[in-house]
Write a structure and sequence with these properties.
The protein has about 290 residues and is of the alpha/beta class. The chain contains 6 helices and 12 strands. The mean pLDDT is about 80.
């Protein structure tokens, strides 16, 4: 082995220089490459983070400006109903069925205790009509007013003329511009509320309640026929009850064999005998025993 050489392995000398990371394995002569890990660095100690306080200052409020308005009116009370008597219902049906053109009428209305509206009478007016519109004439209203004032409660009836109904024949029950203009005239006459009805031959009847005093219009309110109780037949029905209805009477009863206080009914031990389910009162079996002996 000369100077500068390293001891040999299996008779072979190692070279002075070899590639980094390459080792010669003994005996088989195969070369295996090993990746050396980089030297680890010493961990640095975590430095404490100083506390920082952020102060948020809100920007000043913006100047108010109009937006895209979506105006609506919301009624906070109970939705009222319109009631009609059976006679009013029948008369209005005949008005619509007979008329081949638009026709109008007025009616008296009462406001009920629960805030609903009851149409009590309807009156056909003198009027000129067309196939497309009807307009209440001042002369027709004057004639109706004079007719109502002839009654005993004429002034009350005139003041209760708060309903205007008319037929649209075969057209829908949506209000026309002329219908809306007619309601404006009722408001200008000093009415604080009014009821409008639009009917047609297709069986539709639609009511709208105008609350002029608060500027609210309630469209397509529910309606029903009011059937009041006829008190005139009360006396005849009571007489029929007295003649045909009899209260059933039951015999004496008792609570038990030792109930001598009378709280459970008449009790007399002399009439007791023992039965399969306890003591029985023989007075209830006397008739049956006589039939058995026969």
């Amino acid at each position: 082995m000369t100077h500068g050489e390293k001891p040999s392995i299996n008779g072979r000398s190692r070279p002075k220089h070899r590639k980094k990371g390459v080792h010669e394995m003994p005996n088989d002569g195969k070369k295996v490459t090993h990746r050396r890990k980089p030297p680890s660095r010493p961990r640095r100690k975590a430095r404490p983070v100083p506390a920082v306080t952020f102060v948020y200052e809100s920007p000043p409020a913006e100047i108010f400006s109009p937006h895209a308005f979506q105006t609506r009116v919301e009624y906070a009370g109970e939705i009222p109903m319109v009631y009609v008597t059976r006679e009013v219902y029948s008369r209005m049906w005949h008005f619509v069925d007979i008329a081949e053109q638009e026709v109008g009428w007025l009616g008296t209305v009462e406001k009920t205790a629960y805030g609903n509206f009851l149409i009590t009478e309807v009156f056909l007016l003198n009027q000129q009509v067309t196939a497309a519109e009807t307009e209440i004439s001042e002369d027709g209203i004057v004639e109706l007013t004079e007719e109502l004032l002839m009654r005993d409660n004429g002034l009350e009836a005139v003041n209760s003329l708060r309903f205007w109904g008319h037929s649209h024949v075969m057209m829908g029950t949506n209000a026309s511009s002329q219908d809306d203009q007619q309601m404006v005239s009722f408001r200008e006459n000093g009415s604080d509320w009014f009821v409008r009805g639009i009917l047609n031959k297709r069986g539709r009847m639609e009511f709208t309640i105008y609350l002029f005093n608060v500027g609210v219009r309630i469209a397509d309110v529910p309606w029903a026929i009011l059937e009041p109780i006829d008190d005139s037949m009360r006396a005849a029905i009571e007489a029929e009850f007295d003649a045909k209805v009899v209260e059933r009477q039951f015999g004496p009863q008792f609570n038990g064999p030792w109930d001598e206080t009378g709280d459970g009914g008449d009790f007399d031990p002399a009439f007791l005998r023992m039965g399969a389910e306890g003591p029985l009162d023989v007075r209830y079996f006397e008739g049956e025993e006589e039939e058995d002996e026969r």
